[in-house]
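so my prof wants the structure for this chain in the tokens format not the other one, which i didnt know existed until like an hour ago. anyway here's the sequence
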Amino acid sequence: MYGNETPLRRVLYWLPTWLLTALAVSTMLAMPMAEARANDNGNWIATWIASPQPRWEGDFPLPTNTPFQLWDQTIRQVARVSIGGERVRIALSNAYGSQPLVIGAAHLARADSDSAIHPESGTALTFSGQRQISIPPGARVVSDPVKLSVEALDQLAVSLYLPEPTPPATFHWDGLQTAYVGTGNQVGATTLTPQATLDIRLFLSGILVDAVEDSRAVVAFGDSITDGNASTLNANHRWPDFLARRLTNDNVAVLNAGISGARLLHSRMGENALARFERDVLSQPEVESVIVLMGINDIGWPQTPLKPAEDLPTADDLIAAYRQLIARAHIHDVRIIGATLTPFEGALRDTPMRGYYNAEKEQLRQTVNEWIRTSGEFDAVIDFDTVTRDPEQPTRLHPDYDSGDHLHPSDEGYEAMAEAVDIDALFGTQQ
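here's what i got, hopefully its the right format
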């Protein structure tokens, strides 16, 4: 009776019926669970980002405002999202670290006032199933998803415990949001007891949500004027913040990829535009459009303490960089909108950065703006120059929109910039 049967078939022949039934049931149960894991990708989209920067050395005239290191300390950082979702992940970056970044514990919750959180919303975060993670130099990681119903414009608090001596090699200089640093592991504390506060971002580079299917993203790619320099601390009054508020009912994530000091052609306070365009713009999930407002530092920095020996670029130099961004955006089927450079007569004249503005630099700004407006090479144009300038002195910011340094807009100026964005032009939906 066993002539053509394999040993396995003989074993199965004698197995009790109840065991065979149990094996069959467990197999059927395992299949949908495996299928669920395979399909549990969600519709993940970034709802907030902060572009990483390398910490610079002391030979640069601007301070980093970073501590020497953090050790056996917790940092709690607050961020306002743009769109919501039912699940959340965070992204951490060790892009510029020379050693592994060890996260001993991480926690996510809704932010309350100051260093407090709403405890009922809090949850521990894991990375690949582990509470602790070591992030290699140059790497970025995302947390495992956690269930947390997030609404548009909600404020979230991310707490990171750093058990080992950790130099802040990867940071974002112009955070404009108070971060709280406390002793020991306080990630789950309802109110973190701070020993220090910072207004920079450390290691936190993104927050993602599992959003509705038709969600999309627009990236604001720029310098300090996009980063919101001189706007009110903790108020979310950068122009991309005001734009996010306009788009709350449209399932559009507004991602701020501004870096104060950013330039098209050179690196210093962050990598140059061509170097970071892939990471900060093109790699963002569901990105449909990017607004480029950059170039004023290329014009203003030369012959100042920021770059005393650097020659002024030509208009052709700057236009060539814009054309590279345009070409790369179009390769990825991303719509790219050019924004004119805002007025800057008198910029920083009462600071050690005097020389930021002169007539030759103003002529270069005018030439570049004329090309942005008339070349037709961008998919659309936002004329921030016209919006923010003083009608009586068009090379200057409007007095109502001037923060006082004659370079960065005030809160009111940033709001006016956001109101000037044509939403139909932003996504190419004009009839």
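also thought this was worth mentioning. The chain has eleven helices and 23 strands.
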